[in-house]
Amino acid sequence: MSDITPVKKTFLAAPYFAVVGASKDTTKYGTRILKWYQARTFNVTPVHPKEKELEGLSTITAIGELPSPKETSVSIITPPKVTLGILKQAKDIDIPALWLQPGAEDAEVIEYIKENGLSDRVIYGGPCLLVEGDDIARSLL
């Protein structure tokens, strides 16, 4: 079983989820993660600046549009420069937990997380939701 940290449990215990980085390309990880949530009947909202719907779900253009941001965990599958902006928004609206999928962070993103006291709210530096998500979900039962 994977190392199930408190932030991972907090992440998957949320009543709502958002995915930043899903697209019309079903082979990309953002869309695969969106489909992971759908397959498990999680309440998920895709975030996309241009698309109106993804995988049959209505999108929002930014996490600032989330109806319940303090109850929403956010999966991020974006280039690091985009990730940094999302983290800043997430901090401002008090998102409880964020999961940066592998490749969504760089040294600047990690420095921002540490300097802004977000280490206990952000999963980064390795594990993928697609690999660990089911184990974490089972641990919450």
TrEMBL record:
InterPro entries recorded: CoA-bd, NAD(P)-bd_dom_sf
CoA-binding domain: residues covered: 12-104
Domain of life: Eukaryota
Name of the protein this chain belongs to: CoA-binding domain-containing protein
Species: Psilocybe cyanescens
